[in-house]
Amino acid sequence: MEGFWAVFFPVLRVWFTCLVVLIMLPAMFGISLGITETYMKILLKTLEWATHRIQRASRAEEILKRSASNGLIQRNDSSLEQEIEELRRNRPKTAERGDFTLSDVLYFSTRGIESIVEDDVTQRFTSEELVSWNLLTRTNNNFQYISLRLTVLWGVGVVVRYCILLPLRITLTAIGLSWLVIGTTMVGFLPNFRVKGWLSELVHLMCYRICARGLSATIHYHNKQNRPKRGGICVANHTSPIDVVILANDGCYAMVGQVHGGLMGVLQRAMERSCPHIWFERAEMRDRHLVTQRLRDHVNNKTKLPILIFPEGTCINNTSVMMFKKGSFEIGGTIYPVAIKYDPQFGDAFWNSSKYSMVSYLLRMMTSWAIVCNVWYLPPMTQEEGEDAVQFANRVKSTIAQQGGLVDLAWDGGLKRAKVKESFKEQQQKKYSHMVVGDDSSD
Amino acid sequence: MGSRASSLLREEDIEEIKKETGFSHSQITRLYSRFHSLDKGENGALSREDFQRIPELAINPLGDRIINAFFPEGEDQVNFRGFMRTLAHFRPVEDNEKNKDLTSGEPLNSRTNKLHFAFQLYDLDRDDKISRDELLQVLRMMVGVNISDEQLGSIADRTIQEADTNGDMCISFSEFTKVLEKVDVEQKMSIRFLH
């Protein structure tokens, strides 16, 4: 036993020194030693080689067709009126009112079956399907055994990810989070000088940088001149809780959210000590006026940090942007839109909260190859004359969708858990009724 | 972890479904992934609630009728075979399709079978006749509250009058086929697959 500990402690010490010198210190000061770059290059080369092997093994044509579009069927874009007109074209016209024909039902049935085969909404709540395999079991949907070499490579990948990268990352994250708690508490004890604000920002930045290294996150920031300023509201598309780490690596934000218990609660209270964030009790969240008022107070105080809000309200799988809830856009103040797009090749960042708990999600993150993402800061936007909150929200949403190359959907992200509103069906029925009785309906 | 859905589908099953429905191998595996993703209970079968979870289907006025078409008489679950069998009605008709090797006489996506699918959307009690009552109910589903009972009644009467040839005040399948004889059913009731 003695012998074991005698060997173990020096090894541990060396391990920690390496960690601190090679990863933590550079991370804290925002410089890069190039280790991650080399790692990514090797990874890219390997994945390219793997894709090549897979393509050679299967019929090349099939894969090529697949890469062109990930969709299953071609959806018809024409409107209800157009389609029904066409269906009725061959029917002898009668002079009477009541233009119903038995063939009208064909429109609804085809649309219905199309939506069963592939619909725009439910696919946003599960991880995006990859075009070519990236050597992770979890993304292995339709790829069969190809060759021994590929399997060996996959095996090596498993060993590297679980035995080398995972412990490294867990250590880093643990250090990062504990430093966050300790650092912010220490800063919290200082009196309210300007130095306090500066120190608090420093502490936050350092910790988020360490945490980002803890996820092997490579982030590319674009258009830094549009970075959110104090007294503004930063608005971004939501894919996972990691979005916060990604954005906070490059600036300090005031977080908005619900008060949690447990570890999250500890973090929240610690962060609150050094600079003001906005945490709501669960009961308070239902009172929309209260929420808006508190946010408005924060925004009007120009010395406070910009608020970070995710208006979708839930995690979407980073292929589309869903409806932005208008609450954030009623506060007033300048909106700074930010588009976040993850590269799915290296790791899937989407948190499917119905399938994975937070802990298993973080473990999955830490056993992926890396998290690679692009962040675009978009020019600030304000509400225009005669534009209501909903229109403003949609305008911001399209800007973000366009920049990030995401599909702009009007559907509500809440459909992940809730049923769709009856009013949408009633809209369809109303449209169809016009086709049946014409425009001079008596009802 | 549930991502390897295709591995739950055996090659023999795929071959059988291919023969029965005419879908290609890759289409069957993709549709199986879709089936699997809709199957929230992960029990290998879909219930009506699973279909209702698709928002675009839930807002379709005939959504319930379409969902019903998947379930055989008196059953609450549909397995993958049944799912594919119903979807096969909407497979496009290819010009060079030869039906010699299919076990049943006609392929599932023939014009007659497509028309039969549409007929069954109206025929609520599956007695092979569309009565005035059934027509009224389906019309009510499609128009919602926007048309009065009297107006709807007269529309139904007129429709039956135009279609009925044997005077039994119901529309049989052959009368239904006659009414739709000029409609391009093969094109209108088809889904274009990208692969």
TrEMBL record, chain A:
Keyword field contains Aminoacyl-tRNA synthetase: no
GO MF annotations in UniProt: glycerol-3-phosphate O-acyltransferase activity
Segments forming a coiled coil: none
Position of the signal peptide: none
UniProt cross-references to InterPro entries, sorted A to Z: LPCAT1-like (IPR045252), Plipid/glycerol_acylTrfase (IPR002123)
Record GO cellular component, one term: endoplasmic reticulum membrane
Transmembrane residue ranges: 12-35, 146-164, 170-190
Statement: the UniProt record of this protein carries the keyword rRNA-binding: no
Membrane topology term: Multi-pass membrane protein
The entry's keywords: Acyltransferase, Endoplasmic reticulum, Lipid biosynthesis, Lipid metabolism, Membrane, Phospholipid biosynthesis, Phospholipid metabolism, Transferase, Transmembrane, Transmembrane helix
Subcellular location: Endoplasmic reticulum membrane
Pathway: Lipid metabolism; Phospholipid metabolism; CDP-diacylglycerol biosynthesis; CDP-diacylglycerol from sn-glycerol 3-phosphate: step 1/3; Glycerolipid metabolism; triacylglycerol biosynthesis
Domain Phospholipid/glycerol acyltransferase: 232-343
Pfam families, sorted: Acyltransferase
Domain of life: Eukaryota
GO term, biological process aspect, one: phospholipid biosynthetic process
Family of the protein in this entry: Belongs to the 1-acyl-sn-glycerol-3-phosphate acyltransferase family.
Name of this chain's protein: 1-acylglycerol-3-phosphate O-acyltransferase 9, like
Source organism (scientific name): Cyprinus carpio (Common carp)
Taxonomic lineage from the root: Eukaryota, Metazoa, Chordata, Craniata, Vertebrata
From TrEMBL, chain B:
Keywords: Calcium, Cell membrane, Cytoplasm, Lipoprotein, Membrane, Metal-binding, Myristate, Nucleus, Phosphoprotein, Protein transport, Repeat, Transport
Organism name: Cyprinus carpio (Common carp)
Keyword Transcription: no
SUPFAM superfamilies attached to this UniProt entry: EF-hand (SSF47473)
A cellular-component GO term for this protein: nucleus
Name this polypeptide is given: Calcineurin B homologous protein 1
Gene Ontology biological process terms from the UniProt entry: protein transport
Residues covered by the EF-hand domain: 26-61, 110-145, 151-186
Family assignment from sequence similarity: Belongs to the calcineurin regulatory subunit family. CHP subfamily.
GO molecular function: calcium ion binding
Compartmental location: Cell membrane; Cytoplasm; Nucleus
PROSITE patterns assigned to the protein according to its UniProt record, in alphabetical order: EF_HAND_1 (PS00018), EF_HAND_2 (PS50222)
